[in-house]
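Work Package 3 (structural annotation) set out to generate three-dimensional models for the target panel prioritized at the project kickoff. During this period the team completed the workflow that converts sequence records into discrete structure tokens, so that structures can be stored uniformly alongside our sequence database. As a representative example, we reproduce one entry of 143 residues exactly as it appears in the project archive.
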Amino acid sequence: MVLGAPVTTGQIQGVNIMLTVDTSGGNNPVLPIGFQKSCTLNFTTATMDVTSKNSHFWAEYLPGNKDWTIDCDALIVESDLSLNTLENSWIAGQGLYVALSTPANAQHWGGKVYIKTMKYTAADNGVYTATITLQGTGTLGKT
């Protein structure tokens, strides 16, 4: 590879990644969250400090529980079924299934989530937007 040369093989444009939600109450997230601007899948592992006098002045850790969240920014459009589904899930305190997928589902992450936060913003000289954090519960599946 030539230093400074662009790498184009295998890259996926962010515009092609979609966060989808299941609106049927099942486990089949197919409806994209409408008018997405961005989405972020966050992976976290808790760590346990196992440093001892035998560590020779270096901290040592073991992995603990895993955790995951999805953050999404979207434009709000009246009668958007996906946002209505998220709102209803939050009001009822019920979980729902979501997926984050590449084009043609070449790579697919998904699982059950609860609405952690939904923030609607209506700025002067701006569009009405939603900022959403989905808290994963249980296993994050990957296909």
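The helical segments are 81-92.
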